[in-house]
Amino acid sequence: MTDRLYIGTRKGLFVLERVRTRTAKAAGKSAGKGAARSSARSSAKSAAGASWRLLRTAFLGDPVTTVLPDERDGTLYAALNLGHFGVKLHRSEDDGATWHEVAAPSYAANAAQAMGRKITPEGGIEPVPTAPSVSLIWALERGGEAQPGVLWAGTLPGGLFRSADRGESWALNQSLWNLPQRTEWMGGGYDFPGIHTVLLHPRDAQCVTVAVSTGGVWTSLDGGASWEVRTQGLRNEYMPPGQEYHPILQDVHRLVACPARPESMWIQHHNGVFRSTDAGRSWSEITAIRPSKFGFAVAAHPREPDTAWFVPAIKDERRIPVDGKLVVARTRDGGRSFETLSRGLPAPPAYDLIYRHGLAVDGTGDRLAMGSTTGALWSSDDGGDAWQLFSAHLPPIYCVRFAP
Amino acid sequence: MARVVFTQNLQRHVSAPPGEAPGATVREVLEAIFAAHPRLRGYVLDDQQRLRTHMVVFVDGQMLRDRVGLSDAVAPDSEVYVMQALSGGSGAALRLPPA
């Protein structure tokens, strides 16, 4: 199982390592009494006698929206949103001990956009430029095995960017940006639509799939030169009659695929859960999930195409766990049935919400990590049967990611 | 030359020392500063070279009017302050509920 875990939070990056419990205690004592007590409280001990230890932090106080450990060359990337000062991308060659800033994706070359309008205080109307500026790096993924240094980034507003030089420079994918249907994309929880998922086929680096909130699923088979929409079967029940199956107006919250069988895909959609067994060419609605069908996060088992995990919540503007009880829903039969997993998770009231990148599974499929909006982090070593709390007092968690 | 001062809060992220720069407009003055401190540009201006949404510039106590073109006039003895606006910050710019 993977012994390195990266946590991107509203207040910094936290790097955890899995250690034997005895080692963790010794490390805590050597750091002083206060640290030892803190370590004893926060370390999650499992039956195997191991626990997570905080190895290091970075960017404390700053929002870390996504993190990418790139096993091709050992580089670690972290995307920041500094609020006033904009979106930044940093790179580390020593697993997060030291960092330096590289270029962030930018719409600098895309100034020619339609003008918007705004009402002046005097009641007049004046034009305002709406040319885009990146406000969030929402997805960051590496390119193929044979494409060293290639990175993909999904942003808000919804652009797909590619770097061929480890983030030294970025280019907007023009063919996706210029799609006529992109004008039908809409803002989900933000003012603009955003690309939160970039999914690379594990054995074909030319096959790239992106998911948009709100704007459906798009796949390229030629490295991004052309795109086709893959939303057949996705359903938005809250759209006007006749528009439920509109190919573009689909609010996909997260899209994942089974790495060993990448044609097996899962979507947590605003309106429910969907499964595809043909790489997204068609989707089936999954109705067996309990206690609800709304949520953000989904994780796919690395080898078993019929196994996936979800974290259900109450939908729309509420976004809280059903009955104030946080649970994980797991299917092992392709969505025909689900188990509701709660061992080790808090008793009600627990209003933790798991964002779309807040649930991860490692390469074995046994170890999972889950981080919440209220700053709680849990892990499981048995596929979600039981969960151990690492800390309930981290900053709000945006993303959790295992080292590959 | 105009005197240019950046918010102290920038110093945690990027070098932004006070300096003097020539120019008849805010744009010209800032461009002169960025020529010496290229990384600073992206912290003050957005992708379209507009003033970032939650930043504000004062020229001799007057708030910048042209946030897009930065065409406000600067005199040789002007003081230009580049500050954070109180309108936002990481909390407002990165609203939590995305969907």
**Radius of gyration over C-alpha positions of chain B, nearest whole angstrom:** 14 Å
Q: In DSSP terms, counting alpha (H) and pi (I) runs of 4 or more, how many helices of chain B? A: 3
Tell me the greatest interface: A-B, 42 and 31 residues
What is the helical fraction of chain A, as a range of percent?
under 10%
Number of helices of chain A: 3
Write the layout of secondary structure elements.
The complex is a heterodimer of chains A (404) and B (99).
Chain A: E1 4-9, E2 12-20, H1 21-30, H2 33-42, E3 50-58, E4 64-70, E5 75-81, E6 87-92, E7 100-102, E8 115-119, E9 125-129, E10 136-142, E11 151-156, E12 160-163, E13 171-172, H3 174-177, E14 194-201, E15 204-213, E16 216-220, E17 228-229, E18 252-258, E19 261-269, E20 272-276, E21 284-286, E22 294-300, E23 308-313, E24 328-331, E25 339-341, E26 359-361, E27 368-371, E28 377-380, E29 388-391, E30 397-402
Antiparallel strand pairs in A: 1-2, 1-30, 2-3, 4-5, 5-6, 6-7, 8-9, 10-11, 11-12, 12-13, 14-15, 15-16, 16-17, 18-19, 19-20, 20-21, 22-23, 23-24, 24-25, 26-27, 27-28, 28-29
Chain B: E1 2-6, E2 19-21, H1 26-36, H2 41-44, E3 55-59, E4 62-63, E5 79-84, H3 90-93
Parallel strand pairs in B: 1-5
Antiparallel strand pairs in B: 1-2, 3-4, 3-5
